[in-house]
Every structure is written in C-alpha cells, then in structure tokens.
Write a structure and sequence with these properties.
It is a single chain. This protein has 223 residues and is α/β, with parallel strands linked by helices. It has one domain: Spore Coat Polysaccharide Biosynthesis Protein SpsA, Chain A (Alpha-Beta Complex), CATH 3.90.550. Helices cover 43% and strands 21% of the residues. It contains ten helices and eight strands. Strands 3-2-1-4-7-6-8-5 form an eight-stranded mixed beta sheet. Helix 1 runs parallel beside helix 2 and helix 9 runs antiparallel to helix 10. The radius of gyration is 16 Å and the shape is globular.
Length: 223
C-alpha cells in the first residue's frame, strides 16, 4: 500500500485539487493529513476525500514526522498541500515501487509552477539544473520512499524549516531518481515575493543551513 502524507495549516482552499489527483492512484492507498492547527475547512475536505486526519505540533518537519508515524503502507509519498501531481504520476509511481531494486532508493517528481509566465519557466529550469547537478530536490517535488529506507535513514526531523534538505542529505545521490511526471506547485509565493527575491532568499537560507545555523533561527529569518 502507498501512504500519502500531506502537512497542512489552513490549506483548505487549495487541498481539494491535490486530493483529487491523489485519488487517481490505481492501487491500495491511504491519505494522511498531518495538521498543524487549522481553523478552516481542512478537516471537512479530508473527511470527504476519505483521508485520515491527525493533529501535530506546528511545523512542517514535525507534521511530516507525525504523518509518517501514522502511515501503515510499505511505501510513503510525502507531498505539499499546494502541489498537484501531473498526468502519468500513478504510472510512474507504480513502476518505481514495483521494481525490487528500488527498495532502498527514493523518487521525486519534476518541479513545475501553475503560472504561464516566462519567469516561471526560467525558475523551473533552474530547479531542474539543481536537481541534475546537485541532487537536491525540495519538498514541493514530492518524495516517494519505501518504509524500509525511510526508517533506515532516520526519517524527518521535527525542525521548522529545511526539513526537506535535511532528509535528502541522508539519501545517497545515486539512490535518488527523477520520476517522469510533474509536481505542479502553486506559484502564489513567487508572485507575492517576486521571482528573483524569493529564490535569493531561499538560497540564502540554504547557505545558512549548510554552515550549521540552527533551523529555528533560519525560520525566524525566513518569516
């Protein structure tokens, strides 16, 4: 079975399309919403989609860890609430999971934005370069991993920021695979903060993380 874990915090306005794409999965699955204290329609939308709803301490790292602890599937897909998986994702995921050689490998999807602008295409190309050359996909690309490997590398740490970089660092580069399907993420944060300033801020935070600045301090700077 595939367990899909989604951390949420007042994401009801964008959760339904994400769950619709997930429900297209052909095979046994469970949907786990790990919520950090929403006061909107998140619970009702989860129930309507047949998902399981768990309360967690606020913070994406803690919420992902909580969701993973509740998951019973032999494979787990971690996904952000504002990310919709593109056509063909179910085929790509099933093919990856059914290959016994992938028991101790992890997969991620190709980053895409729901924005038609050329700035969005440029950012997508930058992310693709980062993944190909640095083996550094982020959480908005999803992470498909077997339960055995997740446990072997220690899972998600309950940190407020950089939880995706933290776990990817513990997966050997040769054990990461780009799956042939899109992870289409909301471009709202880039439209709000700017297609230049937002990536620069992300890069600055990444640099702080690599030199050992505690994630809680980076989270305060990130806002």
């Amino acid at each position: 079975m595939l367990s899909i874990v989604i951390p949420t915090l007042n994401d009801g306005h964008r959760l339904s399309p994400t769950l619709e794409r997930i429900n297209a999965f052909e095979g046994a699955k469970e949907i786990i919403i790990s919520d950090g204290g929403s006061d909107d329609t998140t619970f009702a939308i989860t129930a309507k989609a047949g998902g399981k709803f768990y309360m967690s301490p606020k913070g994406r790292g803690a919420q992902l860890a909580t969701g993973a602890s509740a998951a019973v599937g032999g494979w787990v897909l971690f996904l952000h609430a504002d990310t919709k998986l593109g056509p063909g994702w179910t085929v790509a995921a099933n093919r990856f999971m059914k290959n016994p050689d992938n028991q101790f490998r992890a997969g991620y999807f190709t980053f895409a934005l729901d924005d038609t602008s050329e700035l969005a295409r440029k950012l997508e190309r930058m992310v693709q370069w980062r993944c190909q050359n640095l083996s550094l996909p982020y959480g908005d690309q999803g992470l498909l991993i077997s339960r055995a490997m997740y446990d072997q590398i220690g899972g998600y740490n309950p940190i407020p920021l950089m939880e995706d970089v933290d776990i990817i660092q513990r997966i050997p580069k040769h054990r990461l695979e780009n799956l042939p399907a899109l992870a289409i993420t909301s471009a709202d944060r880039f439209k709000k903060d700017g297609y230049i300033l937002r990536p620069l801020r992300n890069l600055f935070c990444l640099g702080l993380f690599y030199i050992g600045v505690p994630p809680r301090i980076i989270a305060d700077l990130y806002g």
